[in-house]
Amino acid sequence: MSRSGSSRYGPLFWAALVVGGGTMVFGVAGAVSDLDGGERLRWAAWLVGLDLFHDLLLAPAVVLLGVLLGRLVPAPWRPPVQAGLVGTGLVLLVAWAPLRGTAEKTGNPTIQPLDYGTATLTVLAVVWSLAAVWAVARLVAARRAERLP
Q1: Using CA atoms, how far apart are residues 137 and 60, in angstroms rounded to an integer?
Q2: DSSP-based three-state secondary structure for 73
Q3: CA dihedral defined by 49, 51, 55, 58, rounded to 10 degrees?
Q4: Most distant CA pair in the chain: distance in Å?
Q5: Alpha helix (H) ranges present in the chain?
């Protein structure tokens, strides 16, 4: 509660909490409903391990990278570099399973018919090309602004 006696969270927060919480409960219930006891235990261990990986390794690495970006990358270039890194992370997250070739074990050649290594590199080249164009545009705009009285 704030000093005025009202909650600092508004109705939108509480509505989103109810919807988000309900969605998570539905997802977890659906994920474990068809599992037996041993599979549930392995699934729970995987989930806890993934959470620990995120909290102890991934999140601190992202924070450290953000601090390094703030110190090493010039101010006009920071947003494009940050967007490029976020885009890279998303592309690699989506491409992780196909790059690992996990579907090839099924014996169905139509599941992964593409060269995902080349496709991933192509998408990353597009992401970083867009970031470079954005960075150059910001640099040109900053130099023009310096020349104007």
Answers
A1: 31
A2: coil
A3: 80
A4: 73
A5: 11-32, 37-53, 59-72, 78-100, 116-147
* 126-128-131-135 Cα dihedral, nearest 10 degrees: -130
CA 46 – CA 31 distance, rounded (Å):
13
Residues 32-72: tens digit of each pLDDT: 888 888 888 888 898 899 999 999 999 999 899 989 988 99
Instruction: Identify the pLDDT of residue 33.
Output: 86
Which pair of structure tokens corresponds to residue 84?
Answer: 């490029």
- The tokens 């018919």 sit on which residue? 113
Place of tokens 């920071």: 78
Of 131, 54, 124, the C-alpha closest to 89 is 124
| Contact assessment for residue 91 and residue 123, using Cβ atoms and an 8 Å cutoff | yes
Q: Which amino acid is at 106?
A: T
Written as six digits, the tokens of 20 are: 């988000």
Predicted confidence at residue 135, as pLDDT, reads: 94
The identity of residue 13, as a single letter, is F
Six-digit token string for 139: 């640099």
